[in-house]
Design goal:
316 residues, alpha/beta, eight-stranded mixed sheet, 8 strands, 46% helix, globular
Amino acid sequence: MSTVFILAAGLVLAAVVAASAVALHVTWRLTHPVRKPIDMDPQEFGIEGAEAVVFPSREAGISLAGWYLSAAQNGRTPKGRTLIFAHGYSQNRQEPHLPALALAAKLAHAGYDVLMFDFRNSGQSSPSLTTIGLREQQDLLGAIDFVEAKKPGQTIGLIGFSMGAATSLLVGGADPRIAAVVADSPFYSLREYLEENLPQWTGLPRFPFNWLILTLSPVLLRANPRHVRPYQAVCRAKKPMMFIHGTGDSTVPAENSKRLHALAQDEDSQIWLVPQAGHVRSFALLPEEYAERVTAFLEKGMRKAGERAEAFALRK
């Protein structure tokens, strides 16, 4: 074997090892985003009596923190309905660019109870791996369990943003306790999304790093993006879903919501494309219209769900 061949083979091996090391470092960074602090006061948004709560994820060892906003404690007549907010990647319950507390205040003042919580590895919840909608499903199921135990008989809806929107579709589409889902800026399929957009997240060339990251991360982290498929949940769901997306969204293009809406099974499902709005920026751009549209959608969808539940109880 010639010296030149050995040197060439050594250089190729060194390049592969170096590229793999970079890919793993970036993967680790993406799955361990820096936490943002909980630094907003609900009272500054006109919310009285925000109860600090802690409850378990469905996954053992994960504790989740949040606020429970009661319509009654905010001086409103309760509707008997609770909305659970699900925040986006690297955010926390505050979703400060909305901000989520401003939307929660409008909904609480309309008579809804609202649960805002931090997914794993966010805010004040337990440290863990951020999996962009895979294991976060166990957290959202824990939040639903918490609401069901805290307020038995409540009709429950989900409002999710970006990663939280995709997670809400996955969980809400399958869980019979959920009456309706509002998905603001969801992705259609995580694997498909990452294949197209990883360079924007990592700053690395598409080749060879897309392949390395998507191949190595499922093996080493036991978290495969192939398993995060919101479109499958939407296809199977028999409940109303509202998709909200800004046409100016360059992070998760609006085509994702268009494709998801086309698969929705319930006749009351709808889509609202907000001109020029960026990623999860529709509420910030049009707060009053956003709240009115969401409230109208939930009012109809959750009322129907309540009527179906009452009819089923009478038949029993």
